[in-house]
Amino acid sequence: MSSNSQTTRQESLYRSGYVAFIGRPNAGKSTLLNRLVGQKIAAVSDKPQTTRFKIQGIITSPEGQIVLVDTPGVHKPGYEMNRRMMATVQDALLGVDLVCLIRDASVSTGSGDKFVLELVQRSKKPALLLLNKIDKLKDKSALLPLIEWYRHEYEWRELIPISALRENVSDVLPKEMIKHLPAGEPIFGEDELTDQSVRTMVAEIVREKILQTTQEEIPYVTAVVTEKWEDVREDFTRIHCAIFVERPSQKKIVIGKGAARLKEIGIQARQDIESLLGHRCHLELFVKVEKDWRDKVQLLDEMGISG
Ligand SMILES: Nc1nc2c(ncn2[C@@H]2O[C@H](COP(=O)(O)OP(=O)(O)OP(=O)(O)O)[C@@H](O)[C@H]2O)c(=O)[nH]1
Ligand SMILES: [Mg+2]
After folding, report:
1. Which residues 6+ apart lie within 8 Å of 217 measured at CB?
2. Predicted pLDDT at 12
3. Over 80: is that where the pLDDT of 257 sits?
4. pLDDT of 86 higher than 80
5. What residues sit around ligand 2, an ion, with C-beta below 5 angstroms?
6. Backbone phi, then psi, for 13, in 5-degree steps?
């Protein structure tokens, strides 16, 4: 841990570095990323395993630059896709300057939480514990035993109760993170918010809408790829996205009766895509059946789900 004198001495320096968000699926990592960056760059849903690859969000301030690394929620891998997702988490832990363990404080501790904690312990990195979703706690004193338990498990730089849905996290957290980063030059340009391509972000917007409008296995068996992109005019883009599922019955569900569901997904996605691009777009969605895509190396590579 850095001593006070060190902190004071380095206060005038510009700092920069990488901060990983690690946690169980559904803990609120991507919600927090979007909130801190101030723009929606990661898909969010109430279904676990929403995030499938590393997403970087950039915060630049006069004091320094923080590159937030959002990762897939930690879970037991079944398919090649899930193995890659977990490799992403391990990789992120190795490559960052600071780790944020994000924990949903409104649910009780399970074996998954212990596993995530072990990952942080093994990393030996400076870490913050962020106890999220405190807005869901009727009785805030329920946090005390949780804080007590975590405190004995690791030498956290800070333990901070938060709600990723509330505006005020942006006032507190970046300042706290930046303190633990090394002195250094900005890593990205000052006006960049993410390292993702627009094509990837568009595919993720479509996938998010599918996750939000479908249930049960559909979120897990769905992938989206932006296949064609045509800038027809400066203020008008035509986009073609393929939606992959694994079986014809799933294709029927995604399309819906009289194509109603697919239409709804398209309407919702187009709104978000137009606000991302800053102009009108025409969005075409095609549903394709691709058996076992979650185990197909080449398809996963094309989808950007690399391990
Ligand atoms: N009430 C409440 N809900 C939250 C909060 N933060 C996130 N959520 C909700 O929790 C759900 C999961 O959020 P995500 O940001 O997708 O969670 P994640 O940790 O990125 O999940 P994976 O990508 O699956 O690992 C969404 O429905 C969010 O709206 C919070 O502070 N309070
Ligand atoms: Mg996520």
Report:
1. 250
2. 66
3. yes
4. yes
5. 29-30, 50-51
6. -80, 150
Residue 60 CB partners (closer than 8 Å, separation 6+): 186, 188, 190, 191
pLDDT at position 306: 84
Pairing of strands 98-104, 127-132: parallel
- In DSSP notation, 101-125 reads EEEETTS---HHHHHHHHHHHHHT-
Distance 5 CA to ligand 2 centre (A): 37
Q: What's the confidence (pLDDT) of residue 8?
A: 42
Q: Which atom of ligand 1 is nearest to the CA of 74?
A: 25
Nearest partner of 46 among 77, 20, 73, judged by Cα:
73
Instruction: Give the count of beta carbons closer than 10 Å to the beta carbon of residue 16.
Output: 20
Give the ligand 1 atom nearest the CA of 47: 24
Burial of 238 by CB count in 10 Å (0-12 exposed, 13-18 middle, 19+ buried)? middle
Question: Given a cut of 80, is residue 4 above it in pLDDT?
Answer: no
Which numbered atom of ligand 1 lies nearest the CA of 44? 16
> Atom of ligand 1 at shortest distance to CA of 51?
23
Half-sphere exposure of 25 (CA within 13 A, CB side): 17
Pocket of ligand 1 (CB under 6 A): 23, 25-31, 44-46, 48-51, 72-73, 132-133, 135-136, 163-165
Residue 80 in this model has a pLDDT that exceeds 90: yes
Helices (H) and strands (E) in the chain, counts: 11, 9
Ligand 1, atom 27, lies closest to the CA of: 46
